[in-house]
Structures are given as structure tokens and as C-alpha cells.
């Protein structure tokens, strides 16, 4: 498949399939997803709840075992690594979660929380650990001398997210997966954290997989965007281009549904009724067809492959909008 | 505003906490008329939910409310529990953020709807059942008859919110309060639910209050917007005026901090520095002044009062308002 972002991508996901078994039924969480992320790039992954975007993020980190497919990080297939080899590789890949308060152990001091990855990685010298912790805390805009000895409950959600970001950076990772990092934050704080992520990316030369349900948030930070629906990728393309000219009807629907903070833009009433079907029994063919205004018989029988629709833009649709 | 269906006059809500008194709502005046929609916008902790609870007389037991809540000619703060119970659900309805917690998980959808209807209206079981089916159909639930026998957990989040709306609408309320009705829902479902609320509000000529943190939600769907910060209404105006002629720096900053689809990727967002003040440690001056880029000496010393701008409908509380735009 022609999904090449760069000749030497840092992260390459090939035909990844992840399934869960719940009460004897199989949930098709991620079905045959392939992605590439270039070094220094931010790839935004958007989709509604239950579309498999978080599962994909976890499967990349090997926190969720894939049924099949490969996750190639810097040329190494993470799905075949085990034990120490996987641990070594995981230092280079970090994860930031949605709920910053739940992600921090309430009984431990901030200094220890941020130092923990260093302890696990075997950095024995306490002075060296202290120096590194101070450096990342300062980088995320917190005063190490003031915060190190305090407990998570003394901080607001936004500050806790800064602490989580500091912890994810302390091992100098190359790749960071941000799973809805600002969804739990207020508008005024959200902008601070998004700006901080951009600064950190530049400062530490990071490559990011940015998972979110909010298209505007994703656009603000991403070079390219991948849209997911019921476990499959619908569309991948450069952010600006994808939002200006979506090719997949689902991308168009998502863009249309966003409430715009401008009273002159009357909310469109054309959003089709209906809800995403269950991932236990996804529709045959194109999974979006049950809600798609363009669907026909072919969409029910044939799974659309991602194919090139414009420069760098791919859509999995039999009847693309462009 | 004598014609208003609901008017909140000088409402103050105090909550005792171990850290001292927390003033959740600080001298708020609001009004909404029949057939009108008011949006209340603010971030977490700004007091918007406490204000809605004050209107519904559903404040926590320890909370102290002063001021008046006039609804249809009577002061709700003076009504007996029995009278309030008759009013809530009948004339005053509410839809909460999380439909899973507002619906009873061990009762079927039908039981919950029929119970509400029979509690307030004189209908026999067959009539109440028929009305329930009509309501479910009206809120866009497919196969409404079969749904009556289902439990909330058998429905998706969007469908549950539709049921919660059906329950709220069941007795033709005069006022519907929707507290973050779509925050727990996906964006494609959110649009459908907001459309549904707007349609029913029009059809029933209800007054509606939408409480949200999302300026996008209020922009296209309200007649008037009140922006809250640290317990106070800091700006209030007809919706188009608020968005085009905002005077309060907080409103401007809140709108600017939103990521927007028509802005190029990697454009730094104009974030609001700092965070809201501790509500148990009220500031002497304007609560927004420590974060405000227009703030001057007076802002730290004195609280600006909500006062009219060019038109009497547009109020703001600021000593250094953003200059009025010259255009008509």
C-alpha cells in the first residue's frame, strides 16, 4: 500500500489487527490498519468513541497484543520483541493519557513520580536522576524546587498534565503517543497544554502520534491526519488539505458536525441520523455505509481499500468526494 | 424584564468547605422568556452548574442560597418541598450531562417515562403508554414500542440522552434546563441532540437554558449568552452581539484559545496564562485580572460591576473593556 510518509519512517504499522473477546463475542477493535509516521512528524488520529483509536495507540506500544500485523519502530518489529528487548525499546516510546490526575499515583511525591522511569531504566545515581527531573520539570513550566516535594492532589488538572508530560520526557524518548491529552481540560488550559506539546516536540525532537476526538484540536498540532471509523482507517492526508477537501464522506460528516463558535454559521441540519454500529458485528464491506448518503450495493459487498485521491491524501471509499 | 418566565435576582450560593466558605455563585441576575434560549458558558468551577441547581432548588444540603428565583410569578426559594416536587418534572425539567446517571438503571425506559407522566398528568396507563411511545418517536428513537421494555444499559449514550430528553419533555415543561447535554457524546451525535433540543424548544415554545463550556454549542443555538467566570456573570448579551462586539477580555480570551479549523496547523494558540482563582480565597478586585492582558491598577483593587454597554441588553463587568467596534 502506498502510504509512505517518508523513505525512512520512525514508526510503521502494517496490517495491524486487534480484537477483544467479550462474553464470547469478538470485538473488532482495529481491523487491518497500516500507517507510517515520519521522523519529526505529528500524525493526528481522530475518530469517535469506540472507533479503536486508543486501542491502536496501545497496540503500538505492545500494551495490547495484536492478533496479526507488525509494528515496526525504527526497523524493529515490536510485536516479536519480548522481555528485556521490549523494555529497552519502550524507553524510546512513551505514552500520555487523557486523565492526568488518574495517571499520577496520589501517594507519591512529584519528584519521585517523574524520576520513576529513570529508576526503571537503571539510572542508579540519585544526583543524576535529580538533575534530569529538574530539567524536565523546568521544561514543562514548573519550578522543580517548589513542586518536587508535593503530592498530585495539590495540583490542578492542567498542572498534572504538565507533570505527566515531564514524566514522559525524562527518558528522552523519540516517539510519544498522546491519547486525548487535552480532552479533560478546560478551554483556557487546553491551549496552554497544546502549546507546551508543540514546544516540547521542537525542543526534544519528538515524533508524535496524537490521538483525539476533536478535529480542531488535532488540526492545531498535526502535520498529517488519519481518520478512523469502527476499527478501520477512512482517510489519511496532510492536515490542511484533508480539512479543506475531505475525500471520505465520514471525514466530511465529522467536519460538518463541529459546532462553530460563530453565530453567523447556522448549524447544518444535514447531519444524517443514526449512530455507529456495534464493533461486534461491523457492517460488511465499507463499515460506514449504514450512515453514508452515498452508499450503494458495492459498498455492502466490497471493502474499500485506501487509495490515492490527491497528493499525499488517501481515502478508503468507493465514492470519494474528490 | 417583567415578561420573563424565569428570572434569577441577585442569587448568591455559598458552600461551606473545610478550607472555608466557597462562594460558588456571586450575585447573579439572569432572565429568560418563553420561547427563548439562554446559553450559560464557562469553564469548570465557574459556578454554572451550581446556578442551575439553585434555579431547580436542588442545591446540596449544606449550601446557602440568597436572592430570588422567580418562575412563572412565584419565588421558588420560598416554595415548600411538596410544591417544588410538583413543579419539577411538570413545568421545570432538566437534562443532565450523563444520561446513565439520570436514568434509573434497574427500571425499563417505559416504566420511567410512564411513571413521570402519571405522576404529573391525569392519564391512565394506556394513555401514558401511548404518550411515551409518541415521545420516544419525537426524540428520534427507532422502534419506540420495543424500546419501552428495554433498560438504559441496552441503549447507546446518544439514545440514552434522547430518552432523558423524552422524560424531560414528557409533561410539556415551560422551562427546560440542559446542563452540558452533549458533553459526554460524540461530535456527530452531539449535533443531532442539539438539533433535537432546538426543534422541540421551538415546537413547544419552551424557555430553554443550555449550560456548556463550549462557545461553539451556544453560538448557533441561543438567543442570549451569559459568560460566567469565578461565580459571576462577566458578560451578557444577545448571541450575535456577544460574538461580534464582545467587550469583556475573558470572553475574547476564551474564544481565542479555542483551536479552530480554519487556522493552519502548528499556529501557537493564544492561551490564557495562569488559572482561575481559588474560590475559597476570593480576590478583592476583578477575578480575571491576574490573567488579563488589559488589567490595570484599578482591576486589582475594585470589583467591576455588570453594567450596560451601548445597548441595554449588552452588559459587561470590566474597567478596561475591549474597544467597541466602529461598524454598525
Describe the 3D structure.
The complex is a heterodimer of chains A (322) and B (328). Helix content of chain A is 32%, strand content 23%. Chain A has eleven helices and twelve strands. In chain A, α3 (110-120) packs across α4 (126-139), α4 (126-139) crosses α6 and α6 packs parallel to α7. The mean pLDDT of chain A is 92. Chain B has 328 residues and is α/β, with parallel strands linked by helices. Chain B is 32% helix and 22% strand. Chain B has twelve helices and twelve strands. The longest helix of chain B has 18 residues, at 187-204. The interface between A and B is large, with 48 and 50 residues.
Distance between the termini of chain A: 20 Å
Total beta-strand segments of chain A: 12
Average pLDDT reading of chain A? 92
Indicate the radius of gyration of chain B in whole angstroms: 21 Å
Query: What does the radius of gyration of chain A come to?
Result: 20 Å
How much β-strand is present in the residues of chain B?
A: 15-25%
So how many helices of chain A?
11
Reading side by side through the largest sheet of chain A, how are the strands ordered? Answer: 6-7-8-3-9-10-12-11
Helix/strand structural class of chain A? alpha/beta
Note the overall shape of chain A: globular
Largest interface, C-beta closer than 8 angstroms, per-chain residues: A-B, 48 and 50 residues
Let me know the largest β-sheet of chain B.
Answer: 8 strands, mixed
Compute the number of strand runs of chain B: 12
User: Average pLDDT value of chain B?
Assistant: 92
- Please provide the ordered H/E string of secondary-structure elements of chain A: EEEHEEHEHHHHEHEHEEHHHEE
Principal-axes geometry of chain B comes out as globular
First CA to last CA of chain B: what distance?
A: 26 Å
Unreliable parts of chain B: none
Largest β sheet strand count, sense and barrel closure of chain A:
8 strands, mixed
Number of helices of chain B: 12
Amino acid at each position: 500500500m502506498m502510504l509512505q510518509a517518508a523513505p525512512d519512517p520512525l514508526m510503521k504499522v502494517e496490517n495491524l489487527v486487534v480484537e477483544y473477546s467479550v462474553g464470547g463475542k469478538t470485538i473488532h477493535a482495529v481491523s487491518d490498519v497500516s500507517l507510517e509516521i515520519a521522523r519529526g512528524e505529528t500524525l493526528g488520529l481522530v475518530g469517535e468513541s469506540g472507533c479503536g483509536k486508543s486501542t491502536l495507540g496501545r497496540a503500538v506500544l505492545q500494551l495490547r497484543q495484536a492478533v496479526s500485523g507488525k509494528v515496526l519502530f525504527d526497523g524493529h518489529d515490536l510485536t516479536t520483541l519480548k522481555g528485556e528487548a521490549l523494555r529497552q525499546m519502550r524507553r524510546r516510546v512513551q505514552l500520555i493519557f487523557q486523565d492526568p490526575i488518574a495517571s499520577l499515583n496520589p501517594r507519591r511525591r512529584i519528584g519521585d513520580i517523574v524520576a520513576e522511569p529513570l529508576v526503571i531504566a537503571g539510572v542508579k545515581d540519585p544526583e543524576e536522576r535529580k538533575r534530569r527531573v529538574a530539567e524536565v520539570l523546568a521544561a514543562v513550566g514548573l519550578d522543580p524546587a517548589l513542586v518536587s516535594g508535593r503530592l498530585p492532589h495539590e495540583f490542578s488538572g492542567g498542572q498534572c498534565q504538565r507533570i505527566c508530560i515531564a514524566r514522559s520526557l525524562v527518558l528522552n524518548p523519540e516517539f510519544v503517543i498522546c491519547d486525548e491529552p487535552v480532552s479533560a481540560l478546560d478551554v483556557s488550559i487546553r491551549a496552554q497544554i497544546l502549546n507546551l506539546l508543540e514546544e516540547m516536540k521542537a525542543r526534544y525532537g519528538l515524533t508524535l502520534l496524537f490521538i483525539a476526538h476533536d478535529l480542531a484540536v488535532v488540526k492545531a498540532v498535526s502535520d498529517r491526519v488519519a481518520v478512523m471509523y469502527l476499527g478501520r482507517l477512512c482517510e489519511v492526508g496532510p492536515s490542511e488539505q484533508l480539512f479543506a477537501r475531505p475525500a471520505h464522506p465520514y471525514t466530511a460528516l465529522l467536519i460538518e458536525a463541529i459546532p462553530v463558535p460563530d453565530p453567523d454559521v447556522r448549524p447544518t441540519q444535514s447531519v444524517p441520523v443514526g449512530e455507529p454500529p456495534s464493533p461486534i458485528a461491523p457492517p460488511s464491506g465499507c463499515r460506514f455505509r449504514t450512515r453514508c448518503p452515498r452508499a450503494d450495493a458495492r459498498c455492502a459487498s466490497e471493502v474499500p481499500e485506501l487509495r490515492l485521491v490527491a497528493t499525499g491524501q488517501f481515502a478508503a471509499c468507493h465514492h470519494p468526494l474528490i | 424584564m417583567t415578561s420573563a418566565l424565569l428570572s434569577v435576582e441577585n442569587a448568591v450560593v455559598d458552600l461551606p468547605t473545610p478550607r472555608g466558605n466557597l462562594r460558588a455563585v456571586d450575585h447573579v441576575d439572569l432572565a429568560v422568556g418563553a420561547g427563548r434560549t439562554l446559553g450559560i458558558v464557562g469553564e469548570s468551577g465557574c459556578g454554572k452548574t451550581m446556578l442551575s441547581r439553585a434555579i431547580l432548588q436542588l442545591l446540596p444540603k449544606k449550601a446557602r442560597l440568597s436572592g430570588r428565583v422567580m418562575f412563572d410569578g412565584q419565588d421558588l426559594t420560598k416554595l415548600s418541598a411538596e410544591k417544588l416536587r410538583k413543579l419539577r418534572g411538570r413545568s421545570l425539567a432538566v437534562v443532565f450531562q450523563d444520561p446513565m446517571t439520570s436514568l434509573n438503571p434497574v427500571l425499563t425506559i417505559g416504566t420511567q417515562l410512564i411513571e413521570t407522566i402519571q405522576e404529573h398528568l391525569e392519564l391512565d396507563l394506556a394513555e401514558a403508554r401511548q404518550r411515551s411511545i409518541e415521545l420516544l418517536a419525537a426524540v428520534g428513537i427507532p422502534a419506540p414500542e420495543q424500546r419501552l421494555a428495554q433498560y438504559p444499559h441496552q441503549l447507546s449514550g446518544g439514545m440514552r440522552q434522547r430518552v432523558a430528553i423524552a422524560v424531560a419533555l414528557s409533561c410539556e415543561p415551560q422551562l427546560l434546563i440542559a446542563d452540558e447535554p452533549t458533553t459526554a457524546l460524540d461530535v456527530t451525535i452531539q449535533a443531532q441532540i442539539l438539533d433535537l433540543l432546538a426543534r422541540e424548544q421551538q415546537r413547544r415554545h419552551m424557555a430553554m437554558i443550555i449550560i456548556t463550556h463550549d462557545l461553539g454549542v451556544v453560538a448557533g443555538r441561543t438567543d442570549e449568552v451569559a459568560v460566567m467566570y469565578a461565580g459571576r456573570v462577566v458578560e451578557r448579551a444577545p448571541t450575535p452581539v456577544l460574538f461580534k462586539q464582545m467587550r469583556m477580555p475573558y470572553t475574547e480570551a476564551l474564544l481565542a484559545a479555542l483551536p479552530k479549523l480554519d487556522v493552519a496547523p502548528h499556529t501557537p494558540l493564544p492561551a490564557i496564562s495562569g488559572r482561575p482563582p481559588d474560590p475559597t480565597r476570593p480576590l478583592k478586585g476583578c477575578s480575571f485580572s491576574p490573567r488579563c492582558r488589559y488589567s490595570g491598577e484599578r482591576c486589582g483593587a475594585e470589583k467591576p460591576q455588570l453594567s450596560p454597554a451601548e445597548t441595554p441588553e449588552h452588559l459587561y463587568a470590566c474597567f478596561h473593556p475591549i474597544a467597541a467596534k466602529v461598524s454598525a
